[in-house]
Design a protein that fits this description.
By secondary structure, the chain is α/β, with parallel strands linked by helices. Helix content is about 55%, strand content about 10%.
Length: about 160
């Protein structure tokens, strides 16, 4: 049986964006370009309405590219439980109000028992301090914590 991944918006953004002049971003883009086509075959890939809303924002042409790539992905529901957990994460993980959607990504992946949350957001998601607190909190809440990682960490070896 295939493992599951929740693809957070930063990943699809890197996948469809023009090559960056920033060498670190360019390296992340290159990894994502290699990873994406293989990963969508290797895993059961999911997104949520939060991903769709974020992908639809910003530059119209870029938004269209992101949304086109996301067509066909299964959506995980934004249930009352997901909303509850997101608010708990905001408070307990000290995620700022402006990053509510980051807490929502964590909640969606956790509540729906996803194996991996894949992201390039290393501020509020793929962040060791937040992951450590999330693991403890989810243990108390009796919720499975997905492995939070970048596409680079899920490359086929």
């Amino acid at each position: 049986m295939k493992e599951s991944i929740y693809i957070e918006t930063s990943v699809v953004s890197y996948y469809v964006s023009k090559p960056s002049r920033d060498l670190i971003v360019l390296a992340h883009q290159q990894i994502t370009w290699e990873w994406w086509p293989k990963a969508v075959k290797r895993f059961n890939a999911y997104i949520s309405e939060v991903v769709v809303e974020e992908a639809a924002a910003g530059n119209k042409e870029s938004a269209e590219k992101r949304l086109k790539e996301l067509k066909g992905f299964s959506h995980l529901e934004l249930t009352e439980r997901v909303e509850q957990i997101a608010h708990i994460y905001m408070e307990k993980l000290t995620i700022p109000k402006k990053a509510l959607r980051d807490a929502a990504h964590l909640a969606v992946a956790s509540v729906h028992n996803i194996d991996y949350l894949v992201t390039w957001n290393c501020v509020h998601l793929a962040n060791g301090e937040i992951i450590k607190r999330l693991l403890k909190l989810n243990e108390k809440l009796k919720i499975k914590t997905p492995v939070i990682c970048t596409p680079e960490e899920l490359m086929e070896g």
